[in-house]
Amino acid sequence: MTLLFFLLLLASTLSPSLARGSFQSLVPSEEFKNCSNASCARHLLEDHEPQVQASFDLAQGYMTNDDLERAIKEFAQRCSNISRIYSIGKSVNGVPLWVIEISDKPGQEESEAAFKYIGNVHGDEPVGRELLIFLANWLCDNHLKDPLATLIVENVHLHLLPSMNPDGFSLRKRGNANNIDLNRDFPDQFTSINDNEDLRQPETRAIMNWLRDIRFTASATLHGGALVANYPWDGSDDKSTKYNGCPDDDAFQFMASIYSHSHYNMSSSKEFLGGITNGAAWYPLYGGMQDWNYIHAGCFELTLEISDNKWPNAAELPIIWRYNKMSMLNLVASLVKTGVHGRIYSSGEGRPLPGFITVSGINYTVKAGKPFGDYHRFLAPRDRYQVVASMPGFKSKNISIWLDDGPVTLDFVLDPEISVKGSVLQNVYDCNCNSKNKLEFAQFLWGTHLEVYFVFIVILGFLCFLFQRRVKGKFSTRSVGAKRSVVV
Ligand SMILES: [Zn+2]
């Protein structure tokens, strides 16, 4: 039995790298599929706290927070040519939230998609933080050797936050140091109770600010306690447990399937068809991170449950890494291997435009970047789409495409709108494209009928004119009166 197990492991390690445009899946072993021992037990729901025994620390063999910080800094030194590290903030107890960025041009803006992985959202789900260090090191070791590693490093900006909740980890509990579940702390479309950003936890605020800085195309958070790839929506309007797909349901199902089918045995789940699930169909939750990412940050996020056991024996971590390795790599590579990508330009000087991309029939907008006008639109393949590019002050353009298994590159050249409104909007953009306030102002104007403002301004001007005449009239009458009195 043991021999069989190691042979399977060896087979999964030696499997060839992906060809462009296809995703490799792993065949599950009967041994793993039929597992019924304690390590397969699920510890899923939020109220569950592990029974910490005084004589045995669950985290034995896992990296402490200090070990993790050291591993991140050592990685940055060892792989300085393709990475940089930075912190997005601090936890309640002041632990830095370190991020590793992996790219051939780390820290530089390029017309490339960005992806993020976040581990250890729940303090008592530590497998993800270990796997992200495995992933970083594997990419570093295999860049320019393995085609998939090279593809990712050279075409994607990959950001890894191994631990979002270092305090929860050191306390061996789900919530942070204030005992708040961070995956219930985001603004939610179905509730209004948590809309005040100042009341949020520092870890949550750090994520929200991070997404204002970086335009992520897609992401995934790593959890433990089950084995499934979960996609939005996480909640439902009537709070019931039911399938509640978001506008991009097809794309999300496709994205979740990339993970589950590339995984060692996730897709053969007996509980979840194909190893994927809609969040609300499984169990609805509110204030979750994935819905917020999609709604507010333009980022397609999955919630990945990567290990049935929240605290597997640390010796099993390299095995769990191998089970998840192709999934993690394929999900990042999917940003390059699928979907529609391109840039938006103005027809005049050919300058990049930070416009908008929509797809007919899908109520969702993807924003293009400011410096390059680039966009990256995740879509399920094997379908026809009508892609529309728009920009305030320019005429919209739409192009029909057939999206096969590979990616489609689609650039748009937009003509300026010849109208008062168009000129005003173009001037607002021309003035300073780096000013966020000006862009927001232009978008505000764009969404409003500018002509109404002009009529209003004309009426206001006329009223001013009348008022001035009246004042002048009174003044001149008084003056004349004074002169007369002098004469008299
Ligand atoms: Zn979790």
From TrEMBL:
Cofactor(s) essential for the protein: Zn(2+)
Keywords per UniProt: Carboxypeptidase, Glycoprotein, Hydrolase, Membrane, Metal-binding, Protease, Signal, Transmembrane, Transmembrane helix, Zinc
Record's signal peptide: 1-19
Transmembrane helix recorded as keyword: yes
Protein name in UniProt: Peptidase M14 domain-containing protein
InterPro entries (alphabetical): CarboxyPept-like_regulatory, CARBOXYPEPT_ZN_2, Peptidase_M14, Peptidase_M14_domain
Domain Peptidase M14: 61-335
Listed transmembrane segments: 444-467
Organism: Clitoria ternatea (Butterfly pea)
